[in-house]
Design brief:
The longest helix is centred in the N-terminal third of the chain and has 29 residues. The protein is 49% helix and 17% strand. The strands form two sheets. It has a three-stranded mixed sheet with strand order 3-5-4. Strands 1-2 form a two-stranded antiparallel sheet. It contains three helices and five strands.
């Protein structure tokens, strides 16, 4: 009786291990390697450029809804201009970079995939 339980457990463990290996290979197969344009090295990527751009387009309105866009068009143009100068010397000059000043009291800067970049306006001092 104990021999049967050990064999069943071992068989179950083998199937579980095979499923985990198959899942890992599937996960790796869905992603891929791409050449990093800055270093020239091969890097693992989980989604392509089209997916990256789509994620940014879908999530940008959510960021604006959560934090609000700072209501100063002159400042928005200034930050976009500074950002465009930086983007012009980046390794991805073919993309449209969107720089937005958020109306948030928390000093912060972050980006979404698809080159949507955000900077907060905290205490009236942009940390550029």
């Amino acid at each position: 009786m104990i021999d049967v339980l050990v064999k069943a457990s071992t068989s179950h463990d083998r199937i579980r291990s095979l499923c985990l290996i198959a899942g890992a290979l599937l996960f790796l197969g869905l992603g891929g390697c791409a050449t990093n344009p800055v270093t020239g090295d091969q890097n693992f990527v989980m989604f392509g450029e089209d997916s990256e751009l789509q994620m940014g387009r879908e999530n940008h309105p959510k960021i604006i809804a959560e934090y609000g866009r700072y209501d100063d068009e002159q400042l928005q143009r200034y930050v976009q201009g500074v950002g465009e100068k930086l983007a012009a010397v980046s390794h991805r000059t073919d993309l449209v970079y969107r720089f937005t000043v958020l109306d948030s009291p928390v000093i912060n800067a972050f980006a979404l995939p698809g080159v949507y970049l955000y900077h907060s306006w905290a205490d009236g001092i942009p940390e550029l």
